[in-house]
Design goal:
The complex is a heterodimer of chains A (212) and B (468). Chain A has 212 residues and is α/β, with parallel strands linked by helices. Chain A is built from eight helices and seven strands. Chain A is globular and about 60 Å long. The chains are: A alpha/beta (212), B alpha/beta (468). The complex binds iron/sulfur cluster (SF4).
């Protein structure tokens, strides 16, 4: 997992509620057994005019000029603004992979699908919840100012305008934050408690012998 | 101190250690594995030089990509084939319990787990699939996880988790005849919304839930995730006990009594406090149909397609307008005048024997409408298929012009060849009506198996209870 402490980046808006994981990465791309290569198919059905299939040369496909993330001013964006219930739907980790591989490091929304939220943090995609009023402010600024950027400080847990005219604090579980800030591998951390796990397992199975 | 909820009991009994930030490391009893979300996890394990912590906890099978064509022998799509072969190889390498293609026990992982007794009351059950909430019907703590977590469970048998808030959805009264668990859960989602359960574990209770079969209870818990809740659950009772008894992985005689004694404690205490309670009356419920592109966009079948102009909230207005445009629907159209092109009876929501019986009883002695191009019935597992054939249901479907297929996820998400063409409209017993879910440009209406069957006969949605 790539470390994330402070990040300043170009902001892009996706102003619709309930963006589900099928929309983030359509299921035909889930057939891959790899962890990479999902970026060009992020938001595939909205992004292109044709129907995408695995193995296509995406650079030759017709782009949907009506799709906001295709607008020239948002190319290179690393921070995505979204609305309520972003990432609802399936458990596919391909969704955060696609967003990351498409260049996003941060998604800010009023709420997220629960599984997507966890999957994102597990992959170092920083997902931030801000209330609707703050989201409205960010969407408005993003529309008003070409080249609009934000600074996300994961240690301080803040989203700030680059001129510091506003600084919004956000919540994130301390354990998750620490892992991302340090780029730690979750499994190694859990395996540090191997003995405790074994002890629990023995007790658990002794009490419930039918589980053995 | 108030009593404990079922969720408290399940969660607390699996805590290995508690962390300072309020999260816990919880122990996982059962890990179900399928071909789509596992290859990168197995690869990760290998790269790190790790072995599965407890291979006996894992039960694996391919379901998402498998063809449903009767008598198929190979998967023609090379990309899908590689994914299934990768699972074959991983299962072999780690000597997992594995139901390969051709094995009668193979099917949709959420149908097979309970059917085999691999899902038991009191367990923590995970799978790299959001509809793992299904298994909560057994008074188990079951939830979907992503691929990193799949690898984490493989390597450590544990997951770092934060305890959710608890919600009770109490369904009073009894479902009228012809109104099913699917209608009930659609009504619940219509009421609380697709984000209504976000951050919660939902317990479904009340007389209407208690009086359901295990199949019906699984249908309800299956769609908890559609209400935003990672986990849904239902208390243990005699119905659970009767279902579990004698199944393959269920406790045998020597431990059965001890297991039952423990399982009987798996219900919320009378004085348990929930963070939130929702009450619904089942007495007057009528069959439901979704009209939009999110499961919360749902109405009783006697309703009309909503009019965005009548919605005051601008975000909602836009989302209604966008959904209607995608769905090709005109505001105020009566739902029972919407014509369909295809019928899909299947998925982990509604492909169990009871679902197939309900659909068969509607189509018996009738014919598929001329405007319905395809009506397919896809059993949830090889054993469900076998049972249905013993009861002659396959013949009833075929005589009515419905296709009888091999088990799998099929057109629920259209990763195999079963899909909608752009613009096609489908009466589907699955759980998601998202844009493109059943094929790019396809239009999905979620209904119960009886309602899907009725639509296939009438050629449009119809209140199944009016079909004498
Ligand atoms: S049937 Fe549908 S919802 Fe269920 S596991 Fe398969 S794809 Fe997922």
């Amino acid at each position: 997992m790539e470390k994330f402490v402070v990040h300043t980046g170009l902001v892009a808006p996706l102003d619709r509620a309930n963006v589900d994981t099928d929309a983030i990465i359509p299921k035909q791309f889930l057939k891959s057994i790899k962890r990479t290569g999902y970026g060009p198919n992020c938001f595939d059905e909205w992004r292109y005019l044709d129907v995408g299939q695995p193995g296509m040369d995406n650079s030759k496909r017709p782009l949907n000029s009506q799709f906001v993330l295709n607008e020239p001013r948002f190319q290179g964006a690393t921070i995505l603004l979204a609305r309520q219930n972003f990432g609802c739907g399936s458990s596919r980790e391909h969704a955060p992979w696609a967003l990351l591989q498409n260049g996003f490091r941060v998604v800010i929304a009023p709420s997220f699908g629960d599984i997507f939220y966890n999957n994102s943090l597990n992959n170092g995609l920083v997902v931030i919840r801000l209330d609707d009023a703050k989201m409205d402010r960010l969407f408005a600024d993003c529309a008003a100012f070409p080249g609009f950027k934000l600074t996300v400080d994961l240690e301080k847990q803040t989203v700030a305008a680059t001129d510091a005219s506003y600084v919004f604090p956000f919540e994130i579980a301390a354990g998750k934050r620490e892992r991302i800030v340090n780029g730690w591998d979750d499994i190694s951390l859990t395996l540090k408690h191997s003995e405790q796990i074994r002890a629990f397992e023995a007790k658990h199975h002794a009490a419930r012998p039918w589980l053995q | 101190m108030p009593g404990q909820t079922l969720y408290d009991k399940l969660f607390d009994s699996h805590v290995v250690r508690s962390e300072d930030d309020g999260s816990s490391l919880i122990y996982i009893d059962r890990h179900l594995v399928h071909e789509v979300t596992s290859p990168q996890a197995f690869e990760g394990l290998k790269i790190a030089g790790r072995q599965p912590w407890r291979r006996q906890s894992m039960v694996a099978m391919p379901d998402h990509n498998t063809p449903t064509t009767p008598g198929f022998t190979t998967i023609t799509d090379p990309v899908s084939r590689v994914q299934v072969e990768t699972l074959d190889a991983n299962a072999r390498e780690h000597a997992l319990t594995y139901f390969r293609i051709g094995d009668m026990r193979r099917g949709i992982v959420h149908v097979v787990g309970p059917e085999q007794g691999a899902t038991l009351p009191g367990m923590t059950v995970v799978c790299g699939d959001s509809h793992t909430s299904t298994h909560g019907a057994f008074a188990a703590l079951a939830f979907g996880i992503g691929t990193s977590e799949v690898e984490h469970v493989m390597a450590t048998q544990c997951l770092p988790q934060k305890k959710s808030k608890s919600m009770l959805v109490r369904c009073d009264g009894r479902l009228p005849t012809g109104v099913t668990a699917k209608d009930l859960v659609l009504a619940i989602i219509g009421k609380i919304g697709t984000a209504g359960g976000t951050g919660y574990a939902i317990e479904f209770g009340g007389e209407a839930v208690r009086s359901l079969s295990m199949e019906g209870r699984m249908t309800i818990c299956n769609m908890a995730i559609e209400a935003g809740a990672r986990a849904g659950m239902i208390a243990y009772d005699e119905v659970t006990e009767a279902y579990v008894k004698g199944r393959n992985f269920a406790p045998k005689e020597d431990t059965w009594d001890a297991a039952v004694k423990y399982w009987r404690t798996l219900k919320s205490d009378d004085d348990a406090a929930f963070d939130h309670t929702v009450v619904l009356n089942a007495n007057e419920l009528i069959p439901h149909v979704t009209w939009g592109t999110s499961p919360e966009m749902v109405l009783p079948v006697d309703g009309r397609v909503p009019d965005p102009d009548k919605e005051r909230d601008s975000t909602k207005r836009e989302s209604i307008a966008r959904a209607l445009q995608y769905m090709g629907l005109t505001p105020n159209t009566p739902l029972d005048q919407i014509k369909i092109d295809k019928v899909f009876i299947g998925s982990c929501t509604n492909s169990r024997i009871e679902d197939l019986r309900a659909a068969a009883s509607v189509v018996k002695g009738r014919r598929r409408a001329d405007n319905v191009k395809l009506a397919m019935v896809v059993p949830g597992s090889g054993l469900v298929k076998e049972q249905a054939e013993r009861e002659g249901l396959d013949k009833i479907f075929v005589a009515a012009g419905f296709e009888w297929r091999e088990p799998g996820c099929s057109m629920c998400l259209a990763m195999n060849d079963d899909r909608l063409e752009p613009g096609e409209r489908c009466a589907s017993t699955s759980n998601r009506n998202f844009e493109g879910r059943q094929g790019a440009g396809g239009r999905t209406h979620l209904v119960s198996p009886a309602m899907a069957a009725a639509a296939g006969i009438a050629g449009h949605f119809v209140d199944v209870r009016t079909m004498n």
